[in-house]
């Protein structure tokens, strides 16, 4: 197991500065919830976020499939080095303390990379339900399983919360980013929902123009609502202080989903956001200030 003693104080400080910079450049919806954690847990979350951001960028940025797969394999090797006490990249160095202090599972880091490989290997358009579920588990559930430990929550309810809330957040992201994903040739709406609505296979842009799109998005939004309701129940079964960041994230995304539903699904779809002031109020309401 990697320990904090594997890095000099200077190297550790440099690594933390790097991950903070990644987080603050991103403008993430999760920034407020992360920044209000106690220092050691906050630093762990910044490092986790930076890791996710960096592997996600590999899948999204320009390059051949071979180049992307090689870059992701480079991160798999780095995770192995991290768990053997020899990380070389700034973000992995910033993860040293978190891995040792919070017993972060190596397989969840690898699952995140596997999720990015799904995007890198092929352009995902209307995945079947098994592929959609696997994708959500890897890119969101795995992050939840790492984050919940960094928050300080444990037990069966916390473990279930990590996956259930991760799915609900990812579904909301899918609904929020329809046009952005289509511009990359992607469409994450599950094939079974498209078939149920009578929408034939086609390009992402043609599917997003179909008049029955609202049925698909409405059905997927209800899946997210179900996940949020289950998550609220699980939050009540966990240590309250440890899951406050998860409660804030859920409240922000619930508000975003409600606004998406009010806006509607027909083009032109105006972007939907939750303002910084609204996020601050949500954090205040959940006792993070």
Q: Can you characterise this structure?
A:
The protein is mostly helical and 289 residues long. 72% of the residues lie in helices and 0% in strands. The chain contains 14 helices and no strands. Helix 1 packs across helix 3 (39-60) and helix 3 packs antiparallel against helix 7 (129-151). The longest helix has 24 residues, at 213-236. The model is unreliable at 1-5 (pLDDT under 50).
List the helices and strands and how they pair.
Layout: H1 9-26, H2 31-35, H3 39-60, H4 65-83, H5 90-102, H6 106-121, H7 129-151, H8 156-176, H9 178-183, H10 191-196, H11 204-208, H12 213-236, H13 244-263, H14 276-285
Structural domain tally: 2
CATH class of the largest domain: Mainly Alpha
Structural shape: globular
State mean pLDDT (0 to 100 scale): 92
Pick out the low-confidence regions. Answer: 1-5
How many whole angstroms does the radius of gyration measure? 19 Å
Query: How many β strands by DSSP?
Result: 0
Decide which structural class fits the backbone.
mainly alpha
CATH superfamily of the largest domain: Farnesyl Diphosphate Synthase
Quaternary organisation of the protein chains: single chain
Strand-residue fraction? under 5%
- What is CATH's topology name of the largest domain? Farnesyl Diphosphate Synthase
Number of helices in the DSSP assignment: 14
For the biggest sheet, the summary is:
none
CATH architecture of the largest domain: Orthogonal Bundle
Distance between the termini: 34 Å
């Amino acid at each position: 197991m990697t320990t904090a003693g594997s890095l000099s104080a200077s190297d550790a400080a440099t690594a933390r500065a790097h991950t903070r910079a990644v987080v603050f450049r991103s403008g993430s919806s999760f920034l407020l919830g992360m920044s209000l954690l106690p220092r050691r847990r906050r630093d762990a979350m910044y490092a986790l976020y930076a890791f996710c951001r960096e592997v996600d960028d590999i899948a999204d940025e320009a390059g051949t499939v071979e180049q992307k797969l090689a870059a992701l394999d480079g991160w798999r090797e780095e995770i192995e080095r991290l768990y053997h006490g020899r990380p070389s990249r700034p973000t992995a160095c910033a993860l040293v303390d978190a891995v040792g202090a919070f017993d972060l599972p190596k397989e969840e880091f690898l699952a995140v990379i596997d999720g990015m490989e799904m995007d890198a290997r092929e352009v995902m358009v209307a995945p079947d339900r098994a592929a959609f579920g696997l994708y959500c588990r890897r890119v969101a559930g795995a992050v939840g399983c790492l984050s919940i430990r960094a928050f300080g929550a444990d037990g069966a309810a916390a473990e279930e919360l990590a996956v259930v809330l991760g799915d609900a957040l990812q579904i909301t992201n899918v609904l929020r980013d329809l046009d952005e994903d289509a511009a990359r040739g992607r469409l994450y709406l599950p094939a079974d929902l498209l078939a149920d609505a009578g929408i034939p296979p086609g390009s992402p842009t043609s599917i997003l123009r179909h008049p029955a799109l609202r049925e698909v998005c409405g059905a997927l939004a209800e899946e997210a609502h179900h996940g949020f309701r289950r998550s609220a129940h699980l939050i009540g079964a966990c240590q309250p202080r440890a899951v406050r960041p998860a409660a804030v994230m859920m409240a922000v995304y619930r508000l975003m989903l409600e606004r998406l539903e009010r806006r509607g699904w027909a083009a032109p779809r105006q972007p939907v956001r939750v303002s910084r002031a609204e996020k601050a109020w949500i954090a205040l309401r959940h006792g993070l200030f």
